[in-house]
Specification:
globular, alpha/beta, binds magnesium ion
């Protein structure tokens, strides 16, 4: 007595209710899956999707309400031209991944009627954060010209590849690449990275349907370590939570960025942590170029607990007959408390790495994914710059290297300041490496220090940005500006 779509709805409701009433949080979460299946059947009933698999034509622009890292990973890279989403901000992980792949992305486009643009021709201007749906011939032409210019700039930067990343007064600032998918490794080599400064291990976890086991992980890490040996590869232990969810390990919280994230999850689940550590240390056997990095450290207790587990894994592997070495261990400085305990942290580890993305979000209380407050998110905020200066000084007092691996390390204006502070290395998305090298080679540390002194007198991020843009212009690096921010 019901029509097909109505009967389907009732049945799906009934099933989801059963799942939702379950005690086990994992099974409860499956209600979403049942709903999803229901929606798919409904779509077929209504003939809104073709029955064959999605085929991605060349120059696909992926548009959605929310684009996740796994959706992005589904599209063959050679077909993907750009990403556009209603939610998210420039610092969300999908934007970072798009940047590292050199793919334009416009996120946080809150007014976009997603379904209406399906099949339309779109121009995506990732620098300005604009899109043009069904562009006029004049707009098309203008963008074709800009793409040509962009290619010329890239070719000019490419020539820098073999030149050292050293300042005018001869200080070498090693340039590393941020990576997360194996496809990142090849372009990073091409752009002259001196190693991997941040390998985000959660990405290989996110594109699977289950936790990868020890051997599977070992193979993934080994590929990266081998590709870069003898250059260093910094592998960060699993940093899930916040906006990085594993489909098979749901976490529901009111405030995910202030909740169960990074090291907090892995210390609560030592079985996950130990497997990952075993896989990393085993992948390094015979190479010796791995460095471990711990995310979301907010106090010394977490460092000590992690070090105990790392030593235990090392000991066990030796006893099992593996020729594993104890790698250098570092912590991410990305929570404000870490700034004020910088020396206590530095004394316990071999190196420090500033995660400017989270540090900015936590210092300014601005969600890195919330498009509504995106304008407030600025790593050049005077408070963030003071925090960074303090962190670098603290690390230097303890004689420990401190680098920056957040997106700030890929922003030409910010890099001048980081040089002035005296950071030990920079790690940025592959696409920004040539630009950053250009900045390093155009300034002396002494000049950068003077610029930093000027900037530290300023009280507003906008004023700082304008001043630094002027400095870049004057140094003949104005061409990098459009690409920098
Ligand atoms: C950071 O927070 O700056 C960082 C490098 O880590 P992620 O962006 O993966 O959180
Ligand atoms: Mg972070």
């Amino acid at each position: 007595g019901n029509w097909a779509a109505g009967a389907l709805r009732d049945t799906i409701r009934e099933h989801t209710r059963v799942f939702e009433a379950m005690e086990d949080p994992y099974l409860r979460e499956r209600a979403g899956d049942v709903r999803d299946v229901g929606l798919r059947i409904l779509a077929r009933l209504q003939h809104t999707v073709a029955s064959q698999e999605l085929i991605y034509p060349p120059n696909t622009v992926l548009v959605g309400d929310e684009i996740t890292v796994s959706m992005l990973a589904e599209v063959p890279l050679e077909c993907l031209a750009a990403v556009v989403s209603v939610r998210g901000s420039t610092f969300s992980h999908v934007a970072i991944l798009a940047r590292s792949l050199g793919i334009p992305a416009v996120v946080g486009l809150r007014e976009l009627p997603v379904t209406r643009v399906d099949g339309c021709e779109i121009v995506v201007d990732g620098y300005r954060g604009w899109i043009y749906v069904t562009p006029s011939p004049a707009v098309r032409e203008e963008y074709a010209r800009l793409i040509g210019e962009e290619q010329e700039l890239a070719a000019g930067l490419e020539e820098l590849r073999e030149l050292p990343a050293a300042t005018l007064d001869g200080i070498h600032v090693p340039l590393y690449a941020n990576a997360g998918l194996i496809s990142d490794v090849i372009p990073s080599l091409r752009h002259g990275a001196e190693g991997i400064g941040l390998y985000r291990t959660e990405l290989p976890f996110m594109i699977r349907s289950h936790f990868p086991g020890e051997e599977e992980q070992r193979r993934i890490y080994r590929q990266v370590l081998e590709a870069f040996a003898p250059r260093p590869v910094t592998i960060r232990t699993l940093d899930i939570g916040g906006d990085k969810m594993l489909p098979y390990f749901p976490i529901h919280e009111e405030n995910p960025f202030l909740g169960w994230r990074g090291i907090r999850v892995t210390l609560d689940h030592p079985e996950l942590f130990l497997i990952q550590l075993r896989a990393i240390l085993r992948a390094d056997v015979g190479l010796g170029n791995v460095r471990l990095l711990l995310p979301m450290i907010s106090g010394v207790g977490e460092v000590e607990a992690s070090l105990r587990l790392i030593r235990r894994v090392h000991q066990e592997l030796r006893e099992e007959g593996h020729d594993a070495s104890l790698p250098p261990v570092g912590v991410m400085i990305e929570v404000p408390s870490a700034i004020y305990q910088i020396e206590a942290l530095a004394r316990r580890v071999d190196y420090l790495s500033i995660g400017s993305n989270d540090l900015t979000q936590y210092m300014l209380a601005v969600d890195r994914n919330n498009s509504r407050v995106a304008a407030l998110y600025d790593s050049l905020h005077p408070a963030v710059l003071r925090a960074l200066t303090q962190a670098v000084l603290g690390a230097q007092r303890c004689g420990k290297p401190i680098g920056v691996c957040g997106e700030m390390a890929g922003d030409p204006a910010a890099v001048i300041l980081l040089l002035g502070m005296g950071v030990s290395n920079l790690s940025a998305s592959v696409a920004s490496l040539p630009r950053i090298k250009r900045v390093i080679r155009n300034f002396s540390v002494a000049q950068a220090r003077n610029i930093l002194d000027q900037v530290l007198l300023m009280e507003d991020a906008g004023e700082i940005r304008t001043y630094l843009d002027g400095v870049l212009e004057q140094a003949g690096l104005g061409g990098l500006l459009r690409a920098g921010h």
